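Supplementary Text 2. Reproducibility record for the structural model of the 178-residue chain.

All settings were left at their defaults, and a single model was retained for analysis rather than an ensemble. We include the record here because the model underlies the residue-level annotations in Supplementary Table 4.
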Amino acid sequence: MGSSDRYELARAVLSRIGHAVAIVGASHGAERSCGTGTCMYVSLSPAMIAIAEHTGSRTTRLIRESGEFSVSLLHETQQDLAAAAGKSAPGPDKFATLGIRAAEPPAGLGAPAVDGSLAIVWCRVVQTLPTGDHLLFVGEVVSYLVSDAKARPLLRFGRRYARLGEATSEESPEGYPT
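Retained model, structure tokens:
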């Protein structure tokens, strides 16, 4: 921890926290944006998830303005989308600029999502918490879509994309519902 490199800890340790790769979508007015991110569930009843977005991003601004977001969980063949969504893009519609085919939100919601994802959740923000250089958004799931495609999730571990290996237990060990 004695280094002047503020990201040394992230590269050395935080990158060892494996996670599913997600694209977070948001819109407000005519603007649509997205960014790569992580998510975790924080409540089963009601269903809620949390995402962390960089404070200065357009996606963060649109989430704050609209009060909602989408999370698209990617499968292993969507790595190119994850790489593209993680970078800035000009214009008011990042989905269009990057050629990302959008899944339109259900009635009453505005956040676009990534068509063809393993699963998509649409959330309304119920809590926002500053966390260093990111904002943590907790959203209640108000709609979802689950693909019936037999695809494996795209993962991140050790600053690299990865695929899921073999299961090491039967379904729902210890009685967990997830």
